[in-house]
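Continuing the batch. This is chain 6 of the set; chains 1 through 5 are on the previous pages. Same settings as before, nothing changed between runs. Recording input and output for traceability.
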Amino acid sequence: MSAVENISASLPGLLVEDAVRAALLEDIGRSGDITTQATIAPGAQAEAAFVARRAGTLAGVDFISSAYALLDASLDVELVATDGARLSPGDVVARVKGAARPILTGERVALNFLGHLSGVATATAAFADRIAHTKARVCCTRKTTPGLRAFEKYAVKCGGGSNHRFGLDDAVLIKDNHIAVAGGARRAVELARAFAGHLVKVEVEVDTLDQLREVLPAGPDVVLLDNMPPDILRQAVAIIAGTAAAEASGGITLETVGAIAETGVDYISTGWITHSAPVLDLGLDITM
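Output for chain 6:
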């Protein structure tokens, strides 16, 4: 296993605990884990390992610790790998030993979070690897699972990506519908500049080079170049000439992201890495 460098993000423990608690309550229901109660003696002991079934990038190990801490604080949980690690099939992510009943009861909740977030990290890493030879950074969007945004955006960072807005209150992002109602792209930027505080960045979406030329005098911090092919993106980057950050978006795929990055844009945003990333296959194996 090798770790992605410079992983400095961390998840607030209270957020993780609240999410895990809700998931455990949903899973345990009114009567508890009746399968485990029926088949496993109260004093039975076990040792188990969380293992990668497929190659990928890890995210979400704190959810393992949290699940078992809530179910039985006496369980011994060892986190073998750290978030951001590149996994190969068979790699052990964590080990847990102690009372068998809570180990089995917490298995699915821990794996649901771990598999989903590792899937997001894996998808992000695939994009990041394709553009590593350029200055561009892959970014997520607000196209996230309701209630899981903070976790999915954390997983993006584990995969080597960058975060876009966390919410509508983070920054101004003027899109086509805002422009249509406001009465023009430049006017929308000017209104945003007059409204926003000095620490709030203003980004505006443009669809054409003419629209780009229209908005630049208003001083946006970032210009979102929407659904532009590489040849047009190169022209857009030249027109911007460093006066604003250039962000490409719209229909980005693994097949196209390299060529887009090579146009000189600063950021490439895609919702796919959060809303459509496949779950990474990991499992819990009883080892003793």
